[in-house]
Design brief:
By secondary structure, the chain is of the alpha/beta class. It is 39% helix and 17% strand. The termini are far apart.
Length: 279
């Protein structure tokens, strides 16, 4: 099968999960996060599902067996029962009605995969092995989570906040691209990642005011329509404030104490001088 990696705005769309066990519980978590209107149909549900859906407004539980008409008007159907024949029947009906269907334990029988996700909202990285191995997918996810810190979430938020401002300052796409590339590779992004959001905002505001970007080496760059050209003037706008703040935050140096050890008087040499010999 051939899959298209695709992000869709599913808020408010109808999703039906058939089944009430551990598999259904596992599938329920990402679907609820996507703000879909979720209905579970099953004679029983496990306590884990009950606990995870307390006061959840976009969730409904119908306590009975599945019937064919339940699929009508659904955007996505998840077959998560412990009966393979029942799951295959659900998939068949959904496909006939051109409704997306995911089969938890036999993904190739459905037409939709629900990937594992590294969530650094609004950054989301979806991972799938194409149904080959959930263990492999989990391993890849663990490795990615180790190298992508949660602070990337704040970095994305700052870039979204300044998106229109940058667009207004730099008319051409190439100029905007140059601006953001230097931003991401320079100290302003490092301020964001280290939690110094206010300092980063000040630096970005100054960058847009003078159309200058604080670069890694501490030099000013100006973005024109061709490329970012290095200016001759050293960077001062951003660094002076940093120095002043550092001065204020540092503990004052104590005055040096004079040594109380008395200096001993120099002793005169007691070695007698020998008389000069006459020729």
């Amino acid at each position: 099968m051939s899959y298209l990696p695709l992000f869709i705005d599913t808020a408010g769309k109808a999703c039906l999960i058939v089944g009430g066990g551990k598999i259904a519980s596992r599938k329920l978590v990402p679907v609820l996060k996507s703000k879909m209107s979720v209905t579970i149909i099953s004679p029983d549900i496990i306590d884990e599902i009950k606990e995870n859906t307390i006061n959840v407004k976009n969730f409904k539980y119908i306590q009975r067996k599945f019937v064919e008409s339940d699929i009508n008007n659904q955007f996505l159907v998840v077959a998560a029962t412990n009966d393979k024949k029942n799951n295959s029947l659900i998939a068949k009906i959904a496909k006939e009605k051109n409704i997306l269907v995911n089969i938890a334990e036999d993904s190739l029988s459905g037409d939709t995969l629900i990937p594992s996700v590294v969530d650094r909202n609004p950054i989301k990285i979806a991972i799938s092995s194409g149904g080959a191995s959930p263990i492999l997918t989990r391993l890849v996810k663990t490795k990615l989570e180790a190298v992508i810190p949660y602070s990337f979430s704040k970095l994305a938020e700052i870039m979204m906040e300044y998106r229109d401002k940058v667009k207004n300052s730099f008319v051409k796409i190439t100029d905007r691209r140059n601006f953001w590339e230097i931003f991401l590779d320079g100290p302003i992004s490092e301020m964001v990642l280290s939690g110094h959001i206010d300092k980063a905002r000040k630096a970005l505001d100054e960058s847009l005011k003078y159309k200058k970007v604080l670069e890694k080496t501490g030099e000013v760059y100006f973005c024109d329509s061709e490329k970012c050209k290095q200016l001759d003037t050293p960077i001062e706008i951003f660094i002076e404030e940093e120095i002043e703040e550092d001065k204020k935050s540092k503990v004052p140096k104590l005055p040096k104490k004079e040594s109380k050890v008395p200096k001993l008087p120099k002793k005169e040499s007691k070695i007698p001088k020998l008389p000069e010999k006459k020729d």
